Glucose-6-phosphate isomerase
Amino acid sequence: MPDQPQTPTPTLSQLFDAEPDRLSRLSLEAAGLYFDLSKTHLDHALIQAGIERADRMGFDTARDALFTGDVVNASEGRPATHVAERGSGAPEDVDLATVRRQRMRALVDAIEAGAFGDITGVLHIGIGGSVLGPALLVDALGRRSSRLTVRFLSNIDGAAFDEAVKPLDPATTLVVVASKTFTTQETLANFEAARGWLRSAGVADPDGQVIAVTAKPDAALETGIDESRILQFGEGVGGRYSLWSSVGVTAALALGWDAFEELLEGAAEMDRHFRFADAEANMPLLAAFADRHYVEDRGCQGRGVFAYDERLRLLPSYLQQLEMESNGKSVTKEGKPIHHPTAPITWGGTGTDAQHAVFQLLHQGTVITPVEFIAVRDAEDDQDPEHHRLLLLNAFAQGAALMQGKASEDPQRAYSGNRPSSTILLEKLDPRSLGALIAFYEHRTFANAALLGINPFDQFGVELGKQIARQLADDADTESLDPSTRALIKRAGV
Ligand SMILES: O=P(O)(O)OC[C@H]1O[C@H](O)[C@H](O)[C@@H](O)[C@@H]1O
């Protein structure tokens, strides 16, 4: 039989020509965010295919289960209750989260009222999900308003400790130790180092300046922290979904309680959008359709996220954990192998800096990477408006250039174009819009997981390396190891 002639896939420019309503259909607004997906290859057919796939994969049921507190994390036999932290979950989960938040508020109020003396700084110790969220919040929103000097400490490297404590005065620093499990090696080692730092500075009662945030209060108690200074959060709140819980206490201290509440309200608004908007206009779901298309149909194994706003410079690293730890899996939630790619590598940086470093590959490289620009319409009042105008124009110019390309007789100077991007524009960067933005990414991750049939709430992949490191730290027996690793250990003398 002769080969059927293949219909060429339309380019982005051709899609705009063919679909007069393209921009209006693919530029969505919700919870203070404008999300323009029109420069992706999503078209009617792909959206319909996505909706059919969502039906086939039981997306509606999975989404209901998330919001009604059913078990969505089957491998660990529990619900995912981060949505309840912002009032969107099952009533009993919301009630429990509210009680815990009231306790947290009482502690924040007490600290502000001087119950811990004159506090001028916070040393927040935690790693992974116990630090990336609070660091993003404080960096994004606390630049002008933070009343405290806040430092985040995660790495076990002593150099990180030295740098973190440098601007802090031990006598007036509150130490927040955040760890869901309260067993994490780095966090416990840094906690011990912080105690030593307080002690050697002559602080009479070092533990009196410590707050623990954990899902395992007994483990925190065992380290000697008083019950009155332990803030508990639920087992159902995954680390990378935990900034809404008491893990956010550092942000609440730095930004003020009202700001923390507004953050939760912004996230709740995005929860409502994700839960109730039709599929064709559902931001996280449409974004997931585009993600699946690029990863599975076009072989794009990466997604570049570029914040065209210095205040959002930590967003790419926050999203790396959220997306790669959630969906970087190769089996379904039933344990069946998945025979196509799952999560792309999330990477990125800050615009305009990244334009002068990595955009060459985005415009002319052989690897096509969908790009996401995140920008904020309004600058801060005291920012130079002309700088801000140039910043935004640069972001938009990059998206246009990626799509339109430029022909040239000189191949070195030719741009193929037809390279996809999406743009998220916030009206302004405030707690509410940042809450909505982060919740948007959570739900996009969840929607991808549902379309793939995987459980986004466990992370067994991180265990093996930790186990081997722990084993080596306890017992120098290297016999079971490969020759390369043995040689490295010997050479480093560790
Ligand atoms: O909060 P902790 O229990 O200390 O865990 C901190 C982090 O470490 C683990 O290795 C996981 O990869 C992360 O998901 C988690 O957020």
